[in-house]
Amino acid sequence: xxxxxxxxxxxxxxxxxxxxxxxTPKSNSxxxxxxDAYLQGARxxxxxxxxxxxxxxxxDPVLHDGYDQGQSLEPDLLEAQRHIHWAEHLVLVYPVWWGxxxxxxxxxxxxxxxxxxxFKYRGNSALWDKLLSGRTADLLVTLxxxxxxxxxxYGAPAHRQMTRTILGFxxxxxxxxxxxxxxxxxxxxxxxxxxxxxxTLGTRA
Length: 205
Hints:
Low-confidence stretches: 1-5, 7-12
CATH class: Alpha Beta
EC number: 1.-.-.-, 1.6.99.-
Strand content: 15-25%
Family: Belongs to the NAD(P)H dehydrogenase (quinone) family.
Mean pLDDT: 93
Pfam families: Flavodoxin_2
GO molecular function: oxidoreductase activity
Protein name: NAD(P)H-dependent oxidoreductase
């Protein structure tokens, strides 16, 4: 995976090691603008930021046989694992589609957060070790659904999946979950306010 393809952007400074994962397959969306704003905010504090743009990586997002058989990791996914091990803090920027994660982002977790990398079961018991413990995460999430409706009517399934059953299961503590919604009817003034908010989050990384 080249730096150009991965979006890996080492920045000057001796701050925190941050890995930003842009989890949309679209080549241009408001998620990209939010990611850029957060990155710029983090840069002002001297943090070292690397970026993975999943839409630019080459990998099969389908875990064809579950964990019953091994599935060789593509070079881009092997490098993604190295970036995750390197990072102290993860930033995930993604939209909610159909109440859940985009298929590409879910497929990334299916392929990368494997037993022996993200978690390890203790024998035949239901207990497990969280192999990515010690890391934190910020989530920047766009929706077209109003946040109150997503939370109280739908039950916020995407948020629970990400914070509890993916990151939390692996030992990564979600520090902030910031919603930017509803995007579709928003105007330019609202989007500029959201971008300023994302930049502020970056300064607090």
